[in-house]
Every structure is written in C-alpha cells, then in structure tokens.
Amino acid sequence: MRRYARLTAVIDLIIDLEPREARKSIDALVKHGMIPRLPVDPYDFAKPDIRRRWIDDKNMRVFSMWKLDEPLLSVDLFVEHPIEFDLLWSRAEVTDLGPVSVRIASIPDLIALKRLANRPQDLIDIEKLTEIQKLTQQRDDA
Q1: N or C end: fewer C-beta atoms under 10 angstroms in the chain?
Q2: DSSP conformation class of 103
Q3: Contact 78/101 with Cβ under 8 angstroms?
Q4: Which among 114, 55, 101 is positioned nearest to 79, based on CA atoms?
C-alpha cells in the first residue's frame, strides 16, 4: 500500500465515550504524564454531562492533553463521535507499533473526518488519501 506521511505533533483519538471506557483512556494518558491543556480535572472528560456542557457552552470539539516535559507531544480526544464509534472500530486497520497494536481509521473514514474539519491542510490530505485509496482499489482489483 502506498503511504502518505505528514508530520504532526498531535495524536487525534476517537475513543469509546462510555464513562468506564473513557476513564480507562484518561487513566492511561495520566499514567504517561499527560495533563489537560485547560485547568480542569482530566477525569471530567469521562462524565457525559460535563462533556455536553463543554460542547454546548465552549463549542469544544476536542479535549487536549499534553506533557509538561514534552510540550510538543499532544493528544486530542474527540468529545463526541464525528462518526459512529462502532463503525469506526469495525472498519479500522490494526497496525503494530512495536510493543502495542493500534487501530487506525480506514481511509474512507479518514477522508470523512478530514471533510468535517475542512481546513486547508485537510483538503491536501483528502487529495493524497484519495490517491492512496484509488491505488489500493486498483491493486485489489488486479
């Protein structure tokens, strides 16, 4: 498969927002020294009513966490699912990253997410992802 690399210091995560599962994700980030960029309790993210207030009152789309000793490392957690979580999960590609495996959104889902953001860089990303998608389809058809 053809790859397109674009370096960014932000890791975007769409996680299960069920409170218990969201808390597990926050636990893992806190364990690795991540703290919220905003002056809030990181575990508030796991509370649906608080997330809803952030969305309604602050127009928040992502909850950002970072490391004080590595300020360029940042994680953005979507505060609501831009695409149904179970669909994203089922269509994701599992990739091994050394000691851990991660799920990466499928190319069609990445394109859909980029369309939602619709920033200039996202439009470039959509073009590159569409090229990769076409090449992959051609390879699979051959």
Answers
A1: C
A2: E
A3: no
A4: 55
- The CA-atom distances, in angstroms, between 118 and each of 47, 74, 76, 110, 115 are 28, 21, 17, 12, 5
Rounded Cα gap, residues 38 and 42, in angstroms:
9
pTM: 0.84
Phi/psi for 100 (5° steps) reads -130, 155
Is residue 138 within 8 Å of 1, Cβ to Cβ?
A: no
Of 40-44, 65-69, 109-113, 122-126, give the range with the top mean pLDDT. 40-44
> Do 13 and 78 contact (CB within 8 A), yes or no?
yes
Q: Is 75 helix (H, G, I), strand (E, B) or coil?
A: strand
**Tokens describing residue 6:** 């674009």
The pairing of strands 70-78 and 10-13 is parallel
Q: Are 105 and 91 in contact (CB under 8 A)?
A: yes
Please count the residues of the chain. Answer: 142
In 10 A of CB 114, how many CB atoms?
Answer: 20
